[in-house]
Specification:
The protein has about 180 residues and is of the alpha/beta class. It is about 35% helix and about 15% strand.
């Protein structure tokens, strides 16, 4: 039997919205159209606080935003949700997975004040190869945003899904990851 007091880690999805059209995503049909039943809204800050109460947050060690259907960065309440969590539990560790292609450099730089890791999904080392899978995202914008976060002192991870079309870039990706830190 589960006991709420034993929960130390939570993964939460705060939106089913995503700007990308990745062919293997469950939201669409091989990168086109939306599947029925996909909610196109965002979780509100109040809904978030109802799910992650102060009592629950105070006992957590970590929270993951790794959407099955959406990219947390598209929920406009994400910065407020993060502020709320850290105000309740300043020792909390966060991990956010994203395609990283939205917002400006200042937005990404703002996240360095928290103890968090951002996982940027970058499936190539050139715009052309990256766009084979991460459709509707701009490789140069993703790199710019990741670099803004890293250069401001953030902890980033490069998620590189290996495909036939990008496997020849794996060594270059490793070199760039070291260069970009």
């Amino acid at each position: 039997m589960y006991d709420l007091k034993n929960i130390k880690s939570v993964q939460i999805e705060i939106t089913e919205r995503c700007n990308a059209a990745c062919p293997a995503c469950q939201r669409n049909y091989f990168g086109y159209g939306s599947r029925p039943g996909i909610y196109k809204g965002n979780m509100s800050l109040e809904q978030f606080k109802t799910l992650l109460t102060e009592e629950l947050l105070s006992q957590l060690n970590e929270v993951f935003f790794c959407g099955n259907f959406g990219d947390a960065q598209l929920n406009p309440h994400l910065p407020d949700m993060i502020d709320y969590m850290y105000n309740v539990n300043p020792d909390l560790w966060l991990c956010i997975n994203t395609n990283g292609s939205m917002h400006n450099k200042e937005y990404w730089e703002n996240f360095v004040k928290y103890d968090m890791q951002i996982v940027f999904a970058i499936d190539g080392t050139t715009p052309e190869i990256h766009s084979y899978y991460r459709r509707n995202t701009d490789y140069n914008k993703v790199i710019e945003n990741a670099r803004a976060f890293i250069d401001a002192g953030g902890k980033a991870t490069w998620q590189f899904i290996l495909f036939k079309h990008n496997e020849h870039q794996l060594e270059e990706a490793k070199k760039l990851a070291i260069e970009y830190k």
